[in-house]
Write the structure tokens for this entry.
Amino acid sequence: MSFWEYVGNRRTQLLLDTYQHASAVFQCMVVATVLGVLLGVLTYRSEWAGNLAITVTATILTVPSLAMIGLLIPITGLGVAPTVTALVLYGLLPIVRNAIVGLRGVDPDLVDAARGLGMSRLSRLVRVELPLAWPPILTGIRVSTQMLMGIAAIAAYASGPGLGNEIFRGISSLGSANAVNKVMAGTLGIVLLALVFDAVYVLIGRLTIPRGIRA
């Protein structure tokens, strides 16, 4: 059976796996973005706190994904829980680092001007600092998403959702007629999803970043 014949015969299952993969990455990125930006906001004013946040999230990223999921299984069980936990933890570093760098890179004169207009600290953060720091934050989100697309495939080890199940089925049946087709289908699906997500981020950037800041 050719690859395209295999894809046609397994179309329904592949579409379901693709949807589950995209959904898992999207939801985990939402949580990682909220936590990452919050950590950045809480630590960027302090040199040691910012460095500590970056170091801790970088240390998490050094743990092999298979080992991370294996360590989480006794705590969270199989299925969605270890997948979500691992993906959120892995997605933090680029967002935290870029949030800190972006916020620290805001022109102090602009912040002083906002203070002179009577803006509170929270108002300055929301209306001045975060909008100016948004381009690097969005870049961090894009990097995290690309990483999580691949890491999410390992979630199949813990009975997690997504295209990793197709890859693992192919690996476990190496030598059979459709083993390579299974691995290729899962891998190409992840690559295509990554490209789609990145294109969406490019569009978001064009819609949310003023042309002057992009330049």
Q: What stands out?
A: Residues 3-208 form a domain with the MetI-like fold fold (CATH 1.10.3720.10). Residues 31 and 212 are 30 Å apart (CA to CA).
